[in-house]
Design goal:
Blueprint lengths: L1 E4 L8 H13 L13 H4 L4 H11 L2 H4 L8 H10 L3 E6 L6 H10 L6 E5 L14 E2 L1 H6 L4 E4 L15 E5 L14 E4 L2 H13 L1
Parallel strand pairs: 1-2, 1-5, 2-3, 3-4, 5-6, 6-7
Bound molecules: magnesium ion.
């Protein structure tokens, strides 16, 4: 199986960290469970200038390296690799955050996965000369059987794949979202994701 895995809030608890950062930086108290929107400025009620600073701080290496791993993420991904599945981590983080993002993976048991940056949210000025910075055109040439993603904003990147099953990692900001098709399944955690992929592999 070829598997696309998003990074933030699939492998690690990014939003929980942003929730703490919003208190620290702006005295905005929005607990994780109350984060209703994928757009952080909306969720934390930040103006443009605050949002800008928030994203800059949130992508600094010490912050990126401090994220907690999501329960069972590395165990499941390593099991997939052992079984011969191809796993690509495809993040919407800016390419400038590649190095600390790679370091976090290496430090949390994801040493053997490939990491790519794809400008999913228009936040980045992409660098195209690196093999791990994906141009849309290159991304569209890739092929996946499964995608694990939490952000409804990224669903449009799946439209062109035929027969892709999208496993939506359950998060407060995707609970009200109407899924684009019946190939989308809400999953409560990595155990459930693992079982769905295992079922499909057996068929
Ligand atoms: Mg994400």
């Amino acid at each position: 199986m070829k598997i696309y895995v998003d990074y933030d809030d699939c492998l690690c608890e990014t939003a929980r960290s942003f929730s703490e950062l919003a208190v620290e930086m702006f005295d905005k108290h929005v607990p994780y469970e109350k984060i209703r929107y994928f757009e952080l400025d909306k969720s934390f009620d930040l103006d443009e200038e605050q949002y800008e600073r928030f994203l800059v701080r949130g992508h600094e290496p010490d912050v990126l390296l401090s994220y907690e791993e999501t329960l069972d993420a590395s165990a499941v991904i390593n099991e997939w690799l052992t079984l011969g599945h191809e796993v690509s981590i495809i993040t919407g983080r800016p390419f400038s955050a590649y190095e600390p993002s790679r370091k976090w993976l290496d430090e949390h048991g994801f040493k053997n996965v490939r990491l790519y940056c794809l400008n999913k949210y228009g936040r980045d000025n992409p660098v195209y000369e690196d093999e791990y910075s994906l141009e849309l055109e290159d991304y569209y040439k890739m092929d996946f059987d499964f995608a694990v993603e939490d952000s409804p904003k990224a669903f449009k990147f799946f439209d062109h794949f035929k027969d892709l099953r999208v496993l939506v990692f359950d998060r407060p900001w995707n609970r009200e979202c109407v899924f684009p098709g019946d190939n989308y399944t809400r999953c409560l955690g990595w155990e459930e994701i693992k079982n769905i992929v295992a079922d499909a592999t057996r068929r």
